[in-house]
Design goal:
The complex is a heterotrimer.
Chain A lengths: L14 E10 L2 E2 L1 H10 L5 E2 L12 E2 L7 H4 L10 H16 L4 H4 L4 E6 L5 H14 L7 H4 L6 H9 L5 E6 L5 H14 L5 E8 L3 H9 L24 E9 H6 L6 E10 L9 H15 L8 E3 L6 H15 L5 E3 L2 H4 L6 H15 L1 E2 L22 E2 L4 E8 L3 E8 L6
Helix pairs in contact in A: 3-7, 8-14, 11-12
Chain B lengths: L2 H8 L9 E9 L6 H9 L6 E2 L11 E2 L7 H5 L9 H14 L14 E7 L4 H13 L18 H10 L5 E5 L4 H14 L5 E8 L3 H9 L13 E9 L9 E10 L5 H16 L6 E5 L5 H14 L2 H6 L13 H14 L8 E7 L4 E9 L10
Parallel strand pairs in B: 4-5, 4-6, 9-10
Antiparallel strand pairs in B: 1-7, 1-8, 2-3, 6-7, 8-11, 10-11
Chain C lengths: L5 H14 L21 H15 L14 H12 L2
Helix pairs in contact in C: 1-2, 1-3
The chains are: A alpha/beta, B alpha/beta, C mainly alpha.
């Protein structure tokens, strides 16, 4: 392997989480989200976003109590679609949680990176429906047509927070995009080019994603998701946004910010083998890279927040990769998608927030809807009930179509000096 | 700035080991399917607009700037390409050109830390909207082409290039429209800087389709005309100078971006360029070649005016206007970098000079890169 | 097992050929999609979906593993369509 440019771990700038914003199908806001994770709530309910006529499955994990106007002040609400509204609102929530005012953010050099799978595909769905109905694309709504590009998710956050001096990047690496975005924030702060990054992911339930997973046979026929269960049948689509404020430790300490957790490291790997099938070797390599980047030993990991979609292929392959890395007694491995469904680009961002909350509040969230663990998924998935635990180091997994894996490691701040 | 400093700027011999350099580039563009065609078309300042006859579906305006002769099966083979989208094909063809020699043999060493980062707007809009249309019009809503589903995923092109060339390093897709090529370059720069990759295939791409044309047409700003759309893919090979295997053609001195939050694109471009020049340690007067995006509409005009007011007049004429290619959307910034490199290779005077590439996107992002041209000529060029 | 209708079998063979990149005339009724022709589960879903659309039928995804070759795929389609 050729020369690494990476600064030695000991010399690196440390990066911490000082603000979180969560909009989820089991609760909006940190208090509700934490309560939902602890209680093992399910976000599944009949779909309201689009007409499900003709489908056997009619459930998804939609956000039920979202009030955009409560959070979005500066950009017109129609500047973005549903995914953008989630992203902007969660970003607002996260900077407020971090105690940062617009005046303080001001001209601060920062990164805003937001992951998404489908962006504003719900708007595209609506535009195509307009065209189909009229038989003429000329009738498509110009407001919707003007906001469909994924880049707007992150530029809208910059506009909302009145931050001009930012690099706004929308990471469209599908279902691993949340972790990718957090990793980019980490790398930027580590490099010394900024002290602040606002990172996460957002997606909205849409017909496109629903039809895609339905057609691929990856959507469950049930009203619930059962990751790692011998009778698991697939995913439910979901939505929401998770945004995190990453800050250099120096900056956080200087302003006396509350520190939820330290971002210890991450790893990216590409399977380079198949456009949809998960790959055991690729996932394992991503985990190894993340542990190495974080300087964490395997026996230090308290639990893993799995990608855990609830499909036959993912859960078996991911469990296999975890066993490959950790041996036959891996850390407890939970699947938040049992509660949240698959919130796509938001999934690993919400996973990271759940990990930070588990460190902050001392519990491990459960894998709900669990009856019988699949022998092919030999992990303790913390079935159905959350457990109290002193959580110090957590691994947050994500994988995406196209063979993209992103693994994030968070740790309790102050545990590792 | 004094002559002495200008001379110093020309000094290229010493590059720091961690200096990011471009060691290969290619462009699949309306000038033609490969780098040679791009260079020839650019230097001849050819117009590329033509009737878009081969495009499926009715179009809002008859002309477009398509990549001529872009036949997916011919370029990539029959196997596995039946369901492939044009966007992924553009990226895959470009990656072939970048990594293989004329005989199709691997010419660039890669390993499990070779990264891929591709900038896009919204993926293959044709694939995505075709699927939506099928769902709405077919007898059952799930009667959609299953093989097209992975292709309609926004990160498909980057993943497909990785599969094609067994590239297992960080594989990332960035949505940023016209600035996405610069966002991709900055992404590669940072991840290489943090040791996550040893080299990167880095670029951006856009496909032309009826779906894309109609979305642009109906959302055009009041008082503006429907843009002439283009397509293409610009792809660079970037690596640190210290471990570079190819001959460096340019050093990436700075990449900067910001957001126009006050609907004043000229001010945002000016601030962005000044920041980048400052970071690069060069003055606006040192800019030898400047290449704005020539994006249609207000933002593009403001960008051109802002750049013109910053750099010497001679710098503005060295690279032919990107308007020749139409609005290549997400492909734009990477094709601009390619254009600067193509011009530099034809001009021995370019050695050691500074080039500026700028871009604006309608969503409010502005970005720019400052490059130092390293004097590679047509005879000695890499890749 | 239903009696095979030659026109339907030929059409199914065409669909299979289109989706796994082989010529229909080179495709035998018994060649195994995965083991001999290099198909994967995504390709099988492609075939299943295309047959569904062709005959306006719905085939349960659980039938996928049975679709090992053209012959077996015909039987799966026949059962779903009630041929």
């Amino acid at each position: 392997m050729s020369t690494a440019q990476s600064p030695a771990a000991g010399d690196r700038r440390r990066v911490v989480l000082t603000g979180l914003g969560a909009i989820t199908s089991i609760g909006t806001g940190l208090e509700e989200f934490t309560a939902g994770l602890r209680a093992g709530r399910s976000g599944a309910a009949p779909i309201t976003r689009f007409d499900t006529t003709g489908f056997e499955q009619t459930y998804a994990c939609e956000v039920k109590d979202f009030d955009a106007e409560r959070w979005i002040r500066n950009v017109p609400l129609d500047h973005v679609g549903q995914a953008g509204q989630f992203a902007v609102a969660a970003a607002r929530m996260a900077v407020e949680d971090a105690g940062l005012t617009e005046a303080e953010l001001g001209d601060t050099r920062a990164v805003i990176s937001i992951g998404t799978t489908d962006g504003e595909s719900h708007d595209l769905d609506r535009l195509v429906a307009m065209d189909v109905e009229a038989g003429d694309p000329e009738v498509m709504d110009p407001v919707l047509a003007g906001r469909v590009n994924a880049g707007r998710l992150s530029t809208a956050v910059a506009r909302e927070l009145r931050m001009a001096n930012v690099e706004a990047t929308t990471v469209t690496t599908a279902c691993a995009a949340g972790n990718y975005s957090i990793g980019y924030g980490l790398d930027t702060i580590r490099s010394g080019e900024a002290d602040l990054a606002i990172c996460g992911g957002a997606d909205a339930v849409c017909r496109k994603a629903f039809v895609s997973f339905y057609r691929l046979g990856a959507l469950t026929s049930e009203d619930r998701v059962r990751p790692f269960d011998v009778n698991r049948k697939g995913i439910l689509t979901g939505e929401g946004a998770g945004m995190l404020v990453l800050e250099s430790l120096d900056s956080a300490l200087a302003r006396g910010a509350r520190i939820y957790a330290e971002v210890l490291g991450y790893g990216l790997s590409c399977d380079a083998s198949h456009p949809t099938a998960p790959n055991r070797e690729g996932i394992a390599r991503g985990i190894e890279l993340a542990l190495d980047d974080a300087g964490v030993k395997k026996d230090e990991v308290d639990f893993i927040s799995a990608h855990g979609t609830g499909t036959k292929a993912n859960d078996k392959t991911e469990s296999g990769a975890i066993v490959d890395v950790y041996g036959s007694a891996p850390p407890r491995t939970v699947a938040l998608k049992s509660m949240l469904g698959h919130s796509m680009g938001a999934a690993s961002a919400l996973g990271a927030i759940a990990c930070a909350l588990s460190i902050e509040h001392g519990f491990i969230p459960p894998t709900i809807n669990h009856v019988e663990t699949d022998p092919e998924c030999p992990v303790d998935c913390v079935p159905n009930e959350s457990v109290e635990a002193d959580v110090r180091i957590v691994q947050n997994n994500s994988s995406a179509f196209a063979g993209n894996n992103a693994i994030l490691i968070l740790g309790k701040y102050g545990e590792r000096v | 700035m004094s002559t002495a400093v200008s001379e110093a700027v020309r000094e290229t011999a010493e590059l720091a080991a961690d200096q990011l350099v471009i060691t290969g580039w290619t462009a699949v563009s309306p000038f033609g399917v490969d780098r040679a065609a791009f260079t020839a078309g650019l230097r001849a300042r050819e117009a590329t607009a033509a009737p878009a006859d081969g495009v499926a579906g009715a179009l809002p305006s008859p002309e477009a700037c398509l990549v001529p002769g872009f036949d997916i099966r011919e370029l990539l083979g029959k196997k596995g390409t039946a369901k492939l989208d044009r966007l992924s094909a553009l990226v895959m063809v470009a990656s072939d050109q970048l990594l293989r020699d004329a005989d199709g043999e691997r010419a660039v060493e890669t390993d499990d830390r070779t990264g891929v980062v591709v900038g896009i707007s919204m993926g293959s809009l044709e694939t995505i909207t075709d699927g939506m249309r099928q769902s709405l019009t077919n007898a059952r809503p799930f009667y959609v082409d299953a093989g097209k589903i992975p292709v309609g995923t926004l990160n498909h092109a980057a993943g497909a290039a990785a599969i094609r060339h067994d590239l297992k390093g960080p594989n990332t897709t960035l949505g940023g429209g016209r600035v996405s090529g610069l966002l991709a370059l900055n992404y590669a720069r940072k991840l290489i800087g943090q040791g996550r990759a040893t080299k990167y295939l880095c670029g951006s791409a856009e496909e032309f389709s009826a779906a894309h044309a109609w979305l642009e047409h109906v959302s055009v700003e009041q008082g503006e005309t429907t843009p002439l759309l283009g397509e293409g893919c610009g792809l660079l090979l970037v690596e640190p100078a210290g471990s570079a295997q190819g001959e460096p053609v340019a050093a990436v001195l700075a990449v900067e971006s910001r957001i126009d939050i006050d609907d004043d694109p000229a001010a945002a471009v000016t601030a962005c360029v000044e920041q980048a020049l400052d970071r690069a340690g060069v003055r606006a007067d040192d800019v030898w070649a400047a290449c704005p995006s020539a994006a249609p509409g207000r933002a593009g005009r403001a960008e051109s005016a802002a750049v013109a007011s910053l750099v010497p007049a001679a710098a503005l004429d060295r690279v032919p206007s990107m308007a020749l290619l139409g609005d290549t959307s997400a492909a734009a910034a990477s094709l601009q970098i390619a254009a600067v490199l193509a011009v530099a290779e034809g001009d021995a005077e370019s050695a050691g000079r500074v080039a500026l590439v700028t871009a604006v996107d309608r969503d409010g992002a502005v970005a720019c890169a400052v490059l130092r041209l390293l004097g590679a000529t047509d005879q000695g060029g890499a890749a | 097992m239903t009696t095979v209708a030659p026109d339907r079998l030929a059409r199914i063979k065409e669909i299979v050929a289109e989706n796994i990149d082989v010529e229909a005339e080179d495709l035998s009724d018994t060649a195994l999609f995965i083991d001999e022709l290099g198909a994967d589960s995504l390709k099988l879903i492609d075939i299943l979906g295309a047959i569904e659309m062709e005959y306006s039928i719905v085939i349960d995804m659980d039938e996928l593993p049975k679709m090992v070759n053209v012959e077996a795929t015909y039987q799966v389609a026949a059962a779903a369509a009630g041929w």
